[in-house]
Specification:
Elements lengths: L1 E4 L3 H8 L7 E4 L12 H15 L3 E10 L6 E2 L2 H7 L2 H12 L4 E12 L16 H4 L14 E11 L14 E3 L2 E2 L5 H7 L1 H13 L3
Helix pairs in contact: 6-7
GO molecular function, one term: nucleoside triphosphate diphosphatase activity
Keywords: Hydrolase
GO biological process, one term: nucleoside triphosphate catabolic process
């Protein structure tokens, strides 16, 4: 059984669309979220810690909104910015900086998988022997000997005034090809979203695991 480490049941339902029925279940585990300038080390550290806790294969995701005109902010601090500033304020800041150009941004998701066993190296996804995973190891990580495989998904778009009633988080202010995530139905959003793209890569690899 693959345990998806999240408090959001919607993420598990999204994962089930890419994996075989009954092969994934939710694990509510509060792993340590380190501070880092990129998502990879945060997800990798979380996957190692969650695997030690669960003792079975785990999948951890970390996602962020990277705004071109704000030098990538909020990035790894996306959730904090939502809690403190709110999504409308973040969108307004991005649009003010970009004016009169569109407030271009990208959603990125990094999935980190750990099952305690080694992986064969490949260009993408990334394993412990590659550059991105090497950056995911820090001196305080007592589980750094555990291999972690990383899968990235990115979707580009722009920030706009809120539109739509579906989704969560920044969905109402993130527009992709003329439609905000909050205006899309779940199936359409999952097909183009950063998490969906990362899950597609993971599912293809995991089927051969």
């Amino acid at each position: 059984m693959l345990r998806y480490v999240t408090t959001n049941a919607g993420k598990v339902r999204e994962a089930e669309e890419y994996l075989s029925d009954g092969s994934v279940s939710q694990l509510d585990f509060d792993y340590t979220e380190i501070q880092a300038p990129t998502l990879e080390p945060i997800a990798a550290r979380g996957a190692r810690e969650a695997y030690r806790h669960a003792g079975e294969p785990v999948l951890v995701d970390d996602a962020g909104l990277f705004v071109d005109g704000l030098d990538g902010f909020p990035g790894p601090y996306t959730a904090y910015a939502e809690e403190t500033l709110g999504i409308e304020r973040v969108s307004a800041l991005a649009r003010d900086v970009a004016d009169p150009e569109p407030a271009r941004a990208a959603f990125q998701c990094v999935l980190a998988y750990c099952d305690g066993d080694p992986f064969d190296a490949s260009p993408d996804p990334i394993d412990r022997g590659d550059r991105s995973a090497a950056a995911a190891v820090d001196e305080e990580d007592s589980d750094a000997d555990l291999p972690v495989k990383l899968f990235e998904g990115v979707v580009r778009g722009r920030l706009v005034e809120p539109r739509g009633d579906a989704g969560f988080g920044y969905d109402p202010v993130f527009e992709h090809e003329g439609t905000t995530f909050a205006e899309m139905g779940p199936a359409k959003k999952n097909a183009v979203s950063h998490r969906g793209r990362a899950l597609g890569k993971f599912a293809e690899w995991y089927a051969q695991r």
